[in-house]
Amino acid sequence: MEPYEYRKIDRNNLSDIVFLVKKVAGKRSSVRYYLKKYNTPWSGGQYHGWLAYESSSGRVVSVAAALPMYAVLPDGRSVPMTQMIETFTLPEHRGRGLMTQLVKKITEDHSNAGVRLYFGLLNQNNVHGFVHKLGFVKTHTMAYFCLKIRTFPLESLCRRCRIPRLFRWWAGRIIAPYLAYEGFVLENSVLKEGYGGVLHDSRFFAYKSFTFNRLCHFSGINSWLKFESGLLVGDVVLPDNCPDAQFDEWLLTLRGIAQRMGLRKIFFQTWPGSPLNEKLSARFQANPSWSVCCLAGDAEMQPYLEKMRFGFGDFETF
Q1: Looking at the structure, do residues 270 and 165 belong to the same domain, yes or no?
Q2: DSSP 239-273
Q3: Tens of pLDDT along 180-234?
Q4: Are 291 and 136 contacting, i.e. CB atoms less than 8 angstroms apart?
Q5: 284 and 154: one domain?
Q6: In this structure, is residue 194 part of a structural domain?
C-alpha cells in the first residue's frame, strides 16, 4: 500500500486545510474564510490544489493550494497566471517529497488549462524545494519595513475580544475622508516601472474585499491599505519624481490614520529598486523578507520571469 493518498481540494475538505495551517503555522482561520479566499474571479467556482493523507491513519499531512489569476506582461499582454499558496506539511512528514508531488499536480492541472506563468511568495523553508526540485527561478527577495506607532491598541483588543465589527465601524469613520472615488481602480505600480505583475482590475479588487482593505487618495498619492493586525500598505503609486516633502506628508498622514484607528504598526513589503523601496530605505531600516519564485509554463514565458514584480497586495492574505 502506498504511504500517502492524494485528493483535490474541494469545499468538503477545507476543514483539513484549517487544521494544517493551525498545526504548522499557528494561525487560526475558518472554512468560511477559505470559501471566500479561494473564490477568485478566474477560478470558475472551483477550488485549486491538493491534499496528502497518510494512508494508514487517514490523517491529513500536507497541502498545496493555488489561486488562478491574470498577469500583465511588460508588453501589455494579459496571460493566465497561478499563485502558489498554502504550502504546509506536518513536521514529521517533511523530507518525503510530498510538497513536490502536490505542486507538480497543480502545475500539471493548470498547464493543461492554459496557465502560462506561476509564482510564489515563499519563506526560506520552501525556496529550496521550489527551485531545485520544481524548476522555479528565484528572481529577487522582497524588503520589509515596520513602523511602530504609539497608540491605544484598539484593533488587537477588538480581535482578542472577538468584536471585530466594533473596530471596523471605528476604522471606517477614520478612513472615510481619505477614500478614493467610487469605482476607482489602482493600476499595479509595477507596470509604471516597466515590469510585469498581477492584473489589478475591478474584478481583482472586488475579490480582495474578503479582507478589510480600501483604496485611498491623500497628499496627492494613490494607495491601497489594509487594516488588520496593523496597517498594511498593499500598493502605492508615487508621482514621477515624487518630492520628498510630498512623500513625507503622505507618510505623516498614514501615521495619523494608524494612530487614530488604534493600529500600533505600519507594514510595507517592497520589491528592490521600486520608488517606494527607495523612499523608505532612505528613512528606515530595510529587512530581507519573502523570496519571489517564478516558473514559466512554456518557452515563450521564460524570458519574462526576471521581469515580474510583486507587492504586498499580491500576498494571498492581503
Answers
A1: yes
A2: PTT--HHHHHHHHHHHHHHHHHHT--EEEEEE-TT
A3: 999 999 999 999 999 999 999 999 999 999 999 999 999 999 999 999 999 999 9
A4: no
A5: yes
A6: yes
Phi/psi for 46 (5° steps) reads -105, 160
Question: For residue 228, which of 132, 302, 154 has the smallest C-alpha distance?
Answer: 154
Does 284 lie in the same domain as 156?
A: yes
- 166 and 42 within one domain: no
Q: What CATH number does the domain containing 17 carry?
A: 3.40.630.30
67 and 316 Cβ atoms separated by less than 8 Å:
yes
Q: Which domain holds residue 202?
A: 144-289
The pTM (predicted TM-score) of the whole model is 0.92
> How many CB atoms lie under 10 A from the CB of residue 83?
22
Distance between CA atoms of 287 and 307, rounded to whole angstroms? 22
Query: Does residue 128 sit within a domain?
Result: no
Residues 66-125: pLDDT tens digits?
999 999 999 999 999 999 999 999 999 998 999 999 999 999 999 998 999 999 999 887
Q: What are the CA-CA distances from residue 182 to residues 178, 179, 201, 214 (Å)?
A: 12, 8, 14, 11
| Count of Cβ atoms closer than 10 Å to residue 30 Cβ | 11
Question: How many structural domains comprise the chain?
Answer: 2
Taking each helix axis from N to C end, the angle separating 124-132 and 98-112, rounded to the nearest 10 degrees, works out to 60
Task: State the sign of the Cα–Cα–Cα–Cα dihedral 175, 176, 180, 186.
Answer: positive
Q: 59 — phi, psi (to 5°)?
A: -80, 135
What would you report as the CA-atom Rg of the chain, rounded to the nearest whole angstrom?
20
CATH code at 249? 3.40.630
The count of other CB atoms within 10 Å of the CB of residue 92 is: 9
The x, y and z cell numbers of residue 318, run together, are: 492581503
**DSSP letter at 181?**
P
